[in-house]
Amino acid sequence: MDNYEAYLAGFRQEQSALIIEMEQYAVEHHVPIMDRAGMDLLISLLRIHKPAQILEIGSAIGYSAIRIAEALTDSSIVTIERDHERYEKAVDYIRRSGWEDQITIIEADALQTEEPDIFARSYDALFIDAAKGQYQAFFQKYAPTVTSSGVIYCDNMFMHGMVLLEDEEVPRRKRTMIRNLKEFTRWIMTHPDYEASLLPVGDGLLIAVKK
């Protein structure tokens, strides 16, 4: 797989200085952002889908929102982040990116908030990239905001390969999260209201189309 990644990397376009800075910041400060392969696939799918309104759960430092805004210049993005330090960093990066009119970032716990700015509209696409053990809770809370034929994307479905391990092989502190992630995968892959696919790109990208 590393050979394939190296081959594909040779075809990727060079990113802006700001995006490179954000990627370096994420590495240095252990901020989880979407890897290049997964991000490229998500952007390609969104370009095909062309959603006008996008909701993101888990802004982190604003990396995904900015990459999406750059690729879909006519789309509006609402993104939610609960960590104050990451929220402040995202606000700064979004301002510096020049996409602050297109991206609305809200500081809130996505599982607790009833913020009108989030729920007063509907979305053509929902991107979930927050606490992995809470994916089903995020999905159930925010899926009603997604339009018919809208698409829900979930990143990190493989959790760096841990979903392939037996329970006793998973580090004890991560077992509940991995159990929940596996249960969510089983739940959505057989859900009668969605057409779901799990793609082995990046760290695993789930795509669920709302019927």
Automatic annotation (TrEMBL):
Q: Which SUPFAM superfamilies match?
A: S-adenosyl-L-methionine-dependent methyltransferases
Keyword tags: Magnesium, Metal-binding, Methyltransferase, S-adenosyl-L-methionine, Transferase, tRNA processing
> Which reaction(s) does the protein catalyse, per the Swiss-Prot or TrEMBL entry?
5-hydroxyuridine(34) in tRNA + S-adenosyl-L-methionine = 5-methoxyuridine(34) in tRNA + S-adenosyl-L-homocysteine + H(+)
One GO BP on record is: methylation
Top-level EC class: transferase
**InterPro entries listed in its UniProt record:** Cation-dep_OMT, SAM-dependent_MTases_sf, SAM_O-MeTrfase, TrmR_methyltr
Q: Per UniProt, what is one GO molecular function of this protein? A: methyltransferase activity
Binding sites annotated in the UniProt record for S-adenosyl-L-methionine: 34, 64, 81, 109-110, 129
Described by its record, this protein's role is as follows:
Catalyzes the methylation of 5-hydroxyuridine (ho5U) to form 5-methoxyuridine (mo5U) at position 34 in tRNAs.
Quaternary structure and interacting proteins, as annotated: Homodimer.
Family the entry assigns: Belongs to the class I-like SAM-binding methyltransferase superfamily. Cation-dependent O-methyltransferase family.
The entry's protein name is tRNA 5-hydroxyuridine methyltransferase
Species of origin: Sporosarcina soli
